[in-house]
Amino acid sequence: MEFVERAPTALKVLRANLARLGLATGFRIHAASVKTTLQRINPLAKFDLVFLDPPYDAAAEYSSTLGLLGGSAAGSLAPDALVIAEHRKKERLENRFGKLERTRLLEQGDAALSFYAN
After folding, report:
1. pTM, full prediction
2. Which of 2, 91, 95, 113 is 20 to 30 A from 23, alpha carbon to alpha carbon?
3. CA nearest 2: which of 46, 43, 44?
């Protein structure tokens, strides 16, 4: 399992939550941006599931990250990978980002989940 987080406060919470769960191995935490992490990670790594949860106010992060995963970093996704982006319901994401195509949109309250497959 790989975690990518660049906000120091969120990193502290992430590490504390993993420790409370008794998890000490089986994961890596990358204290960097998604773009930087994908450029540095083993090119043979294939992800089956990617969950994106950038701050709601960082709207550009959605397009940038989904565009990267559907474009130049598409090789990091397993053939049947699922990419899920949590976002504001009023924030409409594109139906397609390169090789990624939205297969489902789940809305509840003010939040939404967009599911993408390649």
Report:
1. 0.83
2. 113
3. 46
59 vs 46: CA distance, rounded Å? 26
Burial class (CB in 10 A: 0-12, 13-18, 19+), 107: exposed
Q: What is the per-residue pLDDT across 24-71, written as a single tens digit (0 to 9) for each? A: 898 889 898 888 888 787 777 788 989 888 776 777 888 889 999 999
**Residues sharing a CB contact under 8 Å with residue 92, sequence separation 6 or more, in sequence order:** none
35: which 2 tokens? 């773009």
Output the CA–CA distances (angstroms, integers) from residue 9 to 14, 32, 43, in the order listed: 9, 13, 29
Distances (CA, A) of 55 to 33, 62, 88: 13, 10, 10
- Which is more confident, 17 or 32? 17
Q: How far is CA 80 from CA 1, 12, 44, 47, 49, in A?
A: 17, 32, 16, 9, 9
Helix (H) or strand (E) holding 59, with range, is helix 59-70
Please report, as a single letter, which amino acid is at residue 33. S
